[in-house]
Specification:
Length: about 170
């Protein structure tokens, strides 16, 4: 049974269930535009919580995260899938089913789209950089600032604010 879900609900899919746990199957149909026919195609989903798997025209394409009794997220990385050319109908409608398992939280961050492998790969890399690697870089910088202020505090013990600031940076960086 498929019920329409408004795209505004994508960021908070767990709210669909009273216990905030369950399986959601999103189904949509799309036609390939002429400019995409004959090209290597990818599907971009963005950051999906908790776990997901994708089917194109009834065929399994792939998954991200761990589905099952104890679902596990793939962190803040984007989900994107190569769409095998033999499974894409160049004329007529293609059926896309996205299975999302929610457990306490659940979301489909962006509106999914299909484009060339190159465009989706670039978007995925940019998305992953800003949503995971950039966080790591900021955390490392904060820890280094904390270490620097510990050093200053060790030289000027009367200035307690350096100790507080050092702790604030280190714990924020973790």
């Amino acid at each position: 049974l498929y019920n329409p879900i408004d795209k505004a609900s994508f960021p908070k899919l767990a709210r669909i269930f009273s216990n905030r746990k369950g399986d959601i199957y999103l189904r949509t149909y799309f036609e390939l535009p002429k400019e995409l026919r004959g090209q290597k195609l990818m599907l971009f989903l963005g950051n999906v919580k908790i776990a997901n798997e994708v089917f194109l025209n009834g065929n399994y394409i792939g998954h991200n995260g761990i589905l099952g009794e104890e679902p596990f997220s793939n962190g803040s990385k984007a989900s994107s899938y190569l769409l095998p050319p033999v499974l894409c109908k160049e004329k007529g409608y293609n059926e896309l089913i996205i299975h999302i398992q929610v457990d306490g939280e659940g979301r489909l961050g962006d509106a999914p789209y299909v484009s060339t492998e190159r465009k989706v790969s670039v978007h995925t890399k940019r998305f992953d950089f800003f949503n995971s690697k950039m966080h790591m870089i900021i955390s490392i910088v904060m820890i280094l600032i904390g270490i620097m202020y510990f050093t200053v505090f060790s030289l000027r013990r009367q200035d307690k604010q350096y100790f507080s600031f050092a702790l604030l940076n280190i714990f924020s960086g973790l």
